[in-house]
Amino acid sequence: MATPAPEGDDDPGTPSTVQLYIDETPRWRDGTPAVSAGMTSMQGRIFWLASAGKFFEGLIVFLIGVALPLITAYWSLSAVETGLLTAATLAGIMVGATALGGLSDRFGRKQMFLVEMVLFTVFLLGATVAPGFAVFLVCLFGMGVALGCDYPTAHAILSETQTTAGRGQKVLSAFAFQAVGAVAGTLVGVAILSTTSSLDSWRLMFGVVVVPAALVAVGRVFVVQSPHWLANVGRRAEAEVELTKLLDRTPRYPSVVTLSDGRDGGAGTATKDVRALFRASWRRSTILASVPWFLQDLSTYGIGIFTPTIIATTLGNVASSDSSSSAIIHKDLLGAKGAALIDVFLLVGILVAIVLVNRWGRMRLQILGFLGCATGLAIAASSTLAHGSVQTVLVFTGFILFQFMTNLGPNSMTYVVAGEVFPTALRGTGAGMAASIAKSGAVLTSFLFPILLVAWGTSAVLAILVGTSLLGAVITWLFRIETTGKSVEEIDSMYEPHPTMTTTTEPAQQ
In the CATH hierarchy, which top-level class contains the domain 41-260+271-493? Predict the structure, then answer.
């Protein structure tokens, strides 16, 4: 077992930076450093609470896909109203990521980390008991606002409290719970649809999430403030206190936390002007963080939300003219079961990404993922030309490949990169803006999908998404920035007057 360095080898009172304290590892008796110190209990708590936010996002967005046929029949919605329903949560994410996410740069990571989950729980409860479509729509939008805030805030508080070597894997592991939530959402739908014959069973689907969400909100009260953020705004004494809590372990080490002055210590010298995101020094970061994410969301959310509907329409054996409650529930259950099987590969994709992210780098995985998504969508589109078992194989093969490759690459990497290519002073604002631009693509595709599926057909819509995936690979290559192996403080140091960043697709040396 590794033990702390013998007294006298290192002076615990020597001033250091926040990240150097977090990255410090114990040593063996002969002085050889250990590979890692492992997460402290506070680091673990932050990880699990950040993971919960991504879990709820995946669960709610994909649960809406399962509940959609029931809600549409329950309130006799038109195609436009159905489009508004599917776009409401994503529109909220688009607004919340910028409107609330940027507040974490001003008021602190912890404050918004808590506020967003309280808002999510309140609106979730409102959606469960909504007396009419308008109220339900408002509640979906409100949940989206809260989840939008979670994009930059959860990423910031997690990445700013983890080691440099483990940051990418920890952020990806937390993001993986979006896939877990997606699978859980479809399974919750399947379980409820299998035991009910009522169109309003969608209320139960949302209702079962209320208590877990409330518990996560309570848990977020008991996390530390980001020491990086405190140091960056000049509150060094508070940063030392919070860093001590973050690194609390048995036996206690470090026994004394003393942060250094100056830029490396986070004295707040970096600009907080949001316009800096569009200046020459950070324009590349802004484009890389925003445009590929926008293109990825066009396909991920359109396919994700409507997978049950597409499967049921393509493979269903219930007459489309049968509008009875039993027929609607049967067709919905058929689509939900197929979607649950396919959505499992979201989780498989993110697990592979966690293993490869430090070996291959963010950019290589993102480009490979975009190309794989295009291939999967092309296979699914070709299914409309086949019949019988061949059609079934093409549909499932295409969607499975798409779900695997999107989480291996663009769906996960765009999230990681958006929180890594901006300085601490602008991390919440920059990542929030990128998420908002991305979710405008999700809103667009979710609103238009039910309309275009009827007007153009499945094959044409999927063909368009093949093109957007290929474009995502090209944009990633042209504006690539590799952040693998770079610490939070190294990224901060790249700010003006040293704006250049490595643009190789090779991962940085570990």
Answer: mainly alpha
